[in-house]
Amino acid sequence: MEHLFSYGTLQSKEIQMQVFNKLLTGKNDQLLGYKLKDLQIEEEFGMADYFVAIPSENHEDFIKGKVFELTSFDLAKADQFESNAYKRIQIKLKSGIIAWIYIES
């Protein structure tokens, strides 16, 4: 199993059903040393506002989110869902879990 840390859209049950055709099992966790930045992404009907994780100079900054267990196949589906404004990297969460996360590309 893979782990994916989500701090935004993929926490939505509606989005999970749309992307994975199932609900994911997750638990609360934190990403230390990162902060959120506003991001505009062009979509089919215009620009939409989102946010993206970026490393912070302040090591006390953190992002709250959920860490989900998913298959490699599901991770590939998440890659297709995320825009090219994001890239996927592995990080260590506060809990000690090694997880994938989408950050600014």
Automatic annotation (TrEMBL):
Q: Which Gene3D superfamilies match?
A: Gamma-glutamyl cyclotransferase-like
Residue intervals of the Gamma-glutamylcyclotransferase AIG2-like domain: 4-103
Task: Tell me where on the tree of life, at the top rank, the source sits.
Answer: Bacteria
The entry's protein name is Gamma-glutamylcyclotransferase
Organism (species): Flavobacterium hungaricum
Top-level taxonomy: Bacteria, Pseudomonadati, Bacteroidota, Flavobacteriia, Flavobacteriales
